């Protein structure tokens, strides 16, 4: 009797959780049409592609204002699910309460969400499942503008991007105006060693670094100039030296920012970014889009072709 009551409660809980999700079928770009989303970051976990974004506050917004992040998943690039809001900026009590760009990485079955909060620094929240719920794990920022030794402006400490390299070492890149990087300890919640600055010939860095690896090469893509285009550099080692390789993505219609994530999923490469193309879209009411990314035989990346059709469903 007791056991069946427990099952009944469990089923009720399952139904309630189900009721809070939003499911849809992809219909070209923008990928997310039921709300305004920005600053995508991707993660592949258990054969599923997860997309984490910020949520722009409203249509026709004239100044960037986000208060929470969102989480979406797909297993076939056709059927998508949004989960209940997994993390709000005011969960970081020390912060401005403003949600800037972020990225989630998995280590040892835990999910670490590195968030930026405009001028109050980068924090980290942790969860047992990609869809959360997430909790501020430090109760203080992991990094602040005081760590951005070459920067003079208040919002320099934004846009974290984390790569766990094949040898298990985690690295974080971030910045606005100047780009920094540092090792993370295995616990993923402390920096390890000296903070260094990225620099190379041709580096015009605005923000939005994204670090990824393909065929043994390191790729650092980033927003360049303003309005932003996405440029990139390649290196044989994560600490460089980096070689500038040119523009990867053009200005994204009706949005001065562009903010990319680059991800391999089930054998294809994807470029995820935002534009202002949804009805009511502005540079501060943005929308996440997805298109294909292709490599040349020498490992360089072809310029992305942004489309309204988006990408095909997987078989
Ligand atoms: O969305 C707020 C900020 O705009 C992000 O942190 C930047 O990358 C830019 O997209």
Question: Helix proportion of residues, in percent?
Answer: under 10%
Mean pLDDT: 95
* Global structural class: mainly beta
Tell me which ligands are bound.
Answer: beta-L-arabinofuranose
**Low-pLDDT residue spans:** none
Strand composition percent: 35-45%
The biggest sheet amounts to: 6 strands, antiparallel
Number of strands: 21
What's this model, at a glance?
By secondary structure, this protein is mainly β. It has one helix at 2-19; strands at 22-25, 37-45, 48-56, 66-74, 79-82, 87-88, 102-107, 110-116, 122-127, 135-136, 161-164, 170-174, 180-184, 191-197, 207-214, 217-224, 229-235, 243-249, 261-265, 268-275, 287-292.
Outline the structure in words.
- This protein has 315 residues and is mainly beta.
- It has one domain: Glycosyl hydrolase domain, family 43 (Tachylectin-2, Chain A, 5 Propeller).
- It contains one helix and 21 strands.
- The strands form five sheets. Strands 1, 2, 3, 4, 5 and 6 form a six-stranded antiparallel β-sheet that branches. It has a four-stranded antiparallel β-sheet with strand order 7-8-9-10, with no helix packed on it.
- Bound molecules: beta-L-arabinofuranose.
- The site of beta-L-arabinofuranose has 13 residues, from strand 2 and strand 15.
């Amino acid at each position: 009797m007791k056991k069946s009551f427990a099952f009944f409660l469990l089923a009720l809980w399952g139904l309630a959780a189900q009721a809070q999700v939003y499911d849809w079928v992809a219909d070209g770009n923008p990928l997310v049409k039921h709300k305004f989303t920005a600053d995508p970051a991707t993660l592949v976990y258990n054969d599923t592609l997860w997309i984490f974004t910020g949520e722009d506050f409203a249509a026709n917004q004239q100044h960037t204002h986000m208060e929470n992040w969102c989480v979406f998943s797909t297993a076939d690039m056709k059927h998508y699910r949004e989960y209940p809001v997994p993390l709000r900026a005011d969960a970081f009590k020390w912060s401005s309460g403003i949600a800037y760009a972020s990225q989630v990485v998995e280590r040892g079955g835990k999910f670490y969400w590195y968030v930026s909060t405009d001028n109050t620094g980068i924090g980290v929240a942790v969860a047992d499942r990609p869809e959360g719920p997430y909790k501020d794990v430090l109760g203080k920022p992991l990094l602040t503008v005081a760590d951005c030794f070459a920067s003079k402006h208040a919002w320099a400490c934004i846009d974290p991007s984390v790569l766990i390299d094949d040898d298990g070492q985690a690295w974080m890149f971030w910045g606005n105006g100047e780009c920094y990087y540092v090792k993370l300890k295995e616990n993923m919640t402390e920096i390890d060693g000296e903070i260094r600055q990225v620099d190379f010939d041709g580096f015009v860095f605005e923000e939005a670094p994204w670090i990824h690896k393909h065929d043994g090469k390191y790729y650092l893509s980033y927003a360049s100039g303003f309005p932003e285009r996405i440029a990139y550099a390649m290196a044989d080692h994560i600490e460089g030296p980096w070689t500038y390789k040119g523009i990867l993505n053009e200005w994204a219609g009706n949005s001065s920012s562009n903010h990319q994530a680059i991800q391999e999923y089930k054998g294809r490469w994807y470029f995820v970014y935002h534009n202002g193309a949804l009805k009511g879209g502005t540079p501060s009411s943005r929308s996440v889009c997805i298109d294909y990314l292709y490599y040349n035989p020498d490992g360089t990346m072809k310029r992305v072709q942004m489309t309204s059709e988006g990408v095909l469903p997987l078989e």
